[in-house]
């Protein structure tokens, strides 16, 4: 018997973030002196050849401290940046996301405030995971950017070594079976939303 899948339509404002903002990211990197124009050119070429994301190649090439690169990436994608070093997350928050989901998607629940759950990710374009969590948990989910190695270390520290199974297998299965509908917005919607975002973040 096949398990039914759930469909969830992604909100238009999040679709804009999925486009990423490579030009904005590049500008921040150079204008803030995080890397040079020559390093940006080289990293862009390498990323194009490897198929990896620009920030991943910059980190691999060691052109700048990881925290500075990730903070620039967060700003480019209009997200907050969180340093996870030494952070302890309450058990009741960790329990909201099954270990298998956290490990597979490299995410970590950080805190809850009312009906909102803040979750750390190292990929600002991973809207699919955000919307699945929003749908399955039936609450608002706010993503914050963090360094991948810190997320992995925190997952190991809060969930254990990774040898155990998630206690909430039903939630894990539902998360896997949920499909997100990335319906395209109109040009007018995108322009209006981008203008609103620019006014709020660039003021």
Describe the structure.
This protein has two domains: 21-78; 79-181, GMP Synthetase, Chain A, domain 3 (2-Layer Sandwich), CATH 3.30.300.160. It contains eleven helices and five strands, in the order E-H-H-H-H-H-H-H-E-E-H-E-H-H-E-H. The protein has 203 residues and is an alpha/beta fold. Mean pLDDT is 81; it is low at 1-20 and 182-189. 26% of the residues are buried.
Summarize the structure.
By secondary structure, this protein is α/β, with parallel strands linked by helices. It folds into two domains: 21-78; 79-181, GMP Synthetase, Chain A, domain 3 (2-Layer Sandwich).
Q: Which fold name corresponds to the CATH topology of the largest domain?
A: GMP Synthetase, Chain A, domain 3
Return the domain count. Answer: 2
Round the mean pLDDT to the nearest integer and report it. 81
Low-confidence stretches: 1-20, 182-189
Number of strands: 5
- CATH class of the largest domain equals Alpha Beta
Rough shape?
A: elongated
Strand arrangement within the widest β-sheet reads 2-3-4
């Amino acid at each position: 018997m096949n398990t039914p899948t759930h469909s969830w339509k992604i909100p238009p404002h999040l679709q804009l973030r999925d486009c990423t903002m490579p030009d904005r990211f590049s500008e921040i990197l150079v204008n803030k002196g995080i890397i040079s124009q020559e390093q940006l050119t080289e990293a862009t070429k390498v990323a194009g050849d490897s198929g990896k994301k620009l920030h991943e190649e910059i980190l691999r090439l060691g052109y700048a401290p990881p925290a500075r690169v990730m903070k620039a990436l967060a700003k480019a994608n209009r997200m907050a940046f969180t340093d996870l070093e030494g952070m302890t997350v309450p058990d009741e928050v960790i329990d909201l996301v099954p270990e298998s989901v956290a490990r597979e998607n490299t995410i970590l629940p950080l805190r809850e405030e009312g009906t909102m759950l803040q979750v750390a990710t190292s990929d600002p374009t991973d809207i699919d995971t955000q919307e699945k969590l929003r749908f399955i948990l039936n609450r608002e989910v706010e993503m914050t950017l963090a360094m991948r190695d810190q997320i992995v270390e925190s997952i190991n520290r809060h969930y254990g070594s990774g040898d155990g199974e998630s206690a909430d297998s039903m939630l894990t299965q539902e998360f896997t079976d949920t499909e997100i509908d990335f319906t395209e917005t109109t040009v007018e919607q995108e322009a209006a939303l981008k203008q609103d975002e620019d006014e709020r973040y660039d003021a």
